[in-house]
């Protein structure tokens, strides 16, 4: 049924992260964690996967002596997200 | 959030919920507005007193705003750091006010050609401009109304080309910076200090 | 400001929201630069004409040339309406830019046509300075929103010219700052935008 849906995006947490990132210019790790209500461990695994797919860019820096991770969506990520929404839309229309 | 197989509807809902979450993100302490509002108000009232010869002052009171500008820049820098996400709206608004300050700076250079009180009128028009656009972008109705009120004050100021124009500027400072600053501060406290 | 996502939100609206977010992130902004070129050349020509009338002929009603902006303004309204109909989605950048220019148009209208005659227009002697100070803002903002550097520089150029105009003592020559600003802020970016649009 979901053959043509991007498997990288079709997962609850990763999709949530991508939806958040498409709406802002950039966001910190803690922001994503709060909004998705997930654990730090799980979230970093998923972010790593998105990064490997080239969908997001991860910037590590220091803020007041603490390491701080900022994420940003890439052009490839935007394209993938758009495709995902399109196929989702088709699926929903077919069902109606 | 647990991993599980999503259905189409669930995905759709999830995307929507997250977009709303992100759009609703708001971190604005209102401090900047309060600092500017009060200091511009005081400087304008002082300018009025000086230029209407009720008081003497070693230099033009508006120069007092220079240190305020640096303090404000520092406060702003610290606030920026506390922000966890930067939205597109934040970014555009920052540029609106950067553009505003550059315009005001260019307008103030009119002092070289003794343009006189008309400069204050131009600053008022620019303030109306910036406030109105901020309101349109954020959909914060207060700023839209305030931009319109400012526009009216600017029009009135064309007919008040005397020292009293500083009083109009003082009123503008209150409605453009101080009041929204206080509104944002109240909202900020409600959101983050409960 | 913060709506409740759960209630009264139709699938149609949800989809629109998602699309608007994607568009916003994509920075897609299609602008052929036509309006920039039209206005750029018009104001350029008007200000040169005005300079000639003022400086060479010493004509009292030198500002009459600006009446030429009225038909162009009407044409612009028609053009925008037509374009709106063709355009499927209004992007975030589109809406911000239109707010900016509408506000600008109101301010300029107030300055040039309404308040001047009402106040016997003493401030007209500083009009070049005033116009350039205000004019830098919409150009700069448009450049920032569509991420197009030549427009950002054009806006900054306006402010620089504005400061420069204060050093020019002869009123007539101050006028030449206006065509210079048009070149920097509208005509050159207009051609660059057009080139970019065609290459897409």
TrEMBL record, chain A:
<protein>
    <submittedName>
        <fullName>Transcriptional regulator</fullName>
    </submittedName>
</protein>
<dbReference type="InterPro" id="IPR036388">
    <property type="entry name" value="WH-like_DNA-bd_sf"/>
</dbReference>
<dbReference type="Pfam" id="PF13601">
    <property type="entry name" value="HTH_34"/>
</dbReference>
<dbReference type="InterPro" id="IPR036390">
    <property type="entry name" value="WH_DNA-bd_sf"/>
</dbReference>
<dbReference type="InterPro" id="IPR027395">
    <property type="entry name" value="WH_DNA-bd_dom"/>
</dbReference>
<feature type="domain" description="Winged helix DNA-binding">
    <location>
        <begin position="13"/>
        <end position="92"/>
    </location>
</feature>
TrEMBL record, chain B:
<feature type="transmembrane region" description="Helical">
    <location>
        <begin position="142"/>
        <end position="159"/>
    </location>
</feature>
<keyword id="KW-0472">Membrane</keyword>
<feature type="transmembrane region" description="Helical">
    <location>
        <begin position="25"/>
        <end position="50"/>
    </location>
</feature>
<feature type="transmembrane region" description="Helical">
    <location>
        <begin position="56"/>
        <end position="75"/>
    </location>
</feature>
<keyword id="KW-1133">Transmembrane helix</keyword>
<feature type="transmembrane region" description="Helical">
    <location>
        <begin position="165"/>
        <end position="184"/>
    </location>
</feature>
<protein>
    <submittedName>
        <fullName>Uncharacterized protein</fullName>
    </submittedName>
</protein>
<feature type="transmembrane region" description="Helical">
    <location>
        <begin position="119"/>
        <end position="137"/>
    </location>
</feature>
<feature type="transmembrane region" description="Helical">
    <location>
        <begin position="95"/>
        <end position="113"/>
    </location>
</feature>
<keyword id="KW-0812">Transmembrane</keyword>
TrEMBL record, chain C:
<keyword id="KW-0472">Membrane</keyword>
<protein>
    <submittedName>
        <fullName>Uncharacterized protein</fullName>
    </submittedName>
</protein>
<feature type="transmembrane region" description="Helical">
    <location>
        <begin position="63"/>
        <end position="80"/>
    </location>
</feature>
<keyword id="KW-1133">Transmembrane helix</keyword>
<feature type="transmembrane region" description="Helical">
    <location>
        <begin position="173"/>
        <end position="193"/>
    </location>
</feature>
<feature type="transmembrane region" description="Helical">
    <location>
        <begin position="151"/>
        <end position="167"/>
    </location>
</feature>
<feature type="transmembrane region" description="Helical">
    <location>
        <begin position="34"/>
        <end position="57"/>
    </location>
</feature>
<feature type="transmembrane region" description="Helical">
    <location>
        <begin position="92"/>
        <end position="117"/>
    </location>
</feature>
<keyword id="KW-0812">Transmembrane</keyword>
<feature type="transmembrane region" description="Helical">
    <location>
        <begin position="123"/>
        <end position="144"/>
    </location>
</feature>
